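Sequence, please.
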């Protein structure tokens, strides 16, 4: 049985977790190790549970009876059983919280959570975790329905070690496989000031964390040296003392403003 642990990026609390046949069980307690966050940003990819080697590190448990308990059945016997929901496209495993793993070499995989093809690995990403470091594992690109595979990559989340409660830190990650290198711009809706969040970022890459005032920003993505907005997201709050990753996901050929697979900027709290 592999022990895994959960780090709350919102409260800074750490929790110890152990995998079981019914999903993930959380036990409160301080931890140390390497910390990993999981993204399902593979366009048209199925919902998955994420694994570190053969240990399941994300899962969702049911909270209702199937079928509902009715008299003379005295109680529900199905709550807490692992759901087939998993982590869907555009979502993060464990509600975006970091998992704590022992440092070392891992093969991370996203495995189908649905009843059909349950447990089939559709994405594999290898990486070495260092003690005290933070990482993000992405499913990305486009899901191949014939091969039942999707792309992926891993990045170190090298955010500032010291918390500055007067500023916020933001970086840009490009998870769109049919994109060219892109630059993320942020416009402060109060002052009107605009700044680039790092340099142009290619697919499977992430920029350095950029320090800026905590405020509400309108975000836009542009090609290097161009003022043309490729896609945008308005009214994004970056709170002072917090650290964020803005990830681009979707399909650059989609022009609809409401399609699920349109180019989209996801804002995730790291700390």
């Amino acid at each position: 049985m592999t022990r895994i642990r959960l780090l709350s990026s919102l409260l800074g609390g750490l929790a110890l977790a152990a995998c079981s046949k019914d999903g993930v069980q959380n036990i409160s307690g301080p931890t140390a190790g390497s910390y990993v966050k999981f993204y399902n940003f593979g366009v048209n990819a199925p919902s998955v549970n994420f694994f570190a080697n053969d240990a399941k590190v994300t899962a969702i448990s049911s909270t209702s009876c199937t079928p509902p308990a009715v008299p003379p059945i005295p109680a529900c016997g199905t709550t807490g059983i692992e759901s087939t929901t998993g982590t869907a496209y555009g979502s993060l495993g464990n509600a975006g919280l970091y998992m704590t793993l022992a440092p070392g070499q891992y093969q991370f995989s996203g495995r189908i959570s649905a009843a059909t093809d349950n447990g089939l690995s559709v994405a594999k990403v290898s990486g070495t975790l260092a003690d005290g470091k933070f990482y993000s594992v992405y499913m990305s690109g486009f899901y191949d329905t014939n091969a039942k595979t999707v792309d992926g990559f891993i990045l170190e989340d090298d955010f500032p070690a010291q918390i500055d409660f007067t500023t916020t830190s933001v970086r840009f990650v490009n998870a769109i496989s049919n994109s060219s290198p892109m630059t993320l711009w942020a416009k402060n809706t109060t002052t009107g000031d605009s700044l680039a969040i790092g340099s142009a970022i290619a697919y499977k890459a992430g920029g350095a964390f950029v320090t800026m005032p905590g405020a509400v920003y309108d975000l836009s993505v542009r090609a290097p040296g161009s003022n043309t907005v490729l896609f945008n997201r308005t009214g994004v709050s970056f709170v002072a003392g917090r650290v964020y990753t803005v990830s681009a996901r979707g399909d650059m050929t989609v022009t609809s403003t409401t399609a699920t697979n349109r180019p989209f900027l996801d804002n995730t709290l790291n700390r």
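Residues 1-64+80-157 form a domain with the Immunoglobulin-like fold (CATH 2.60.40).
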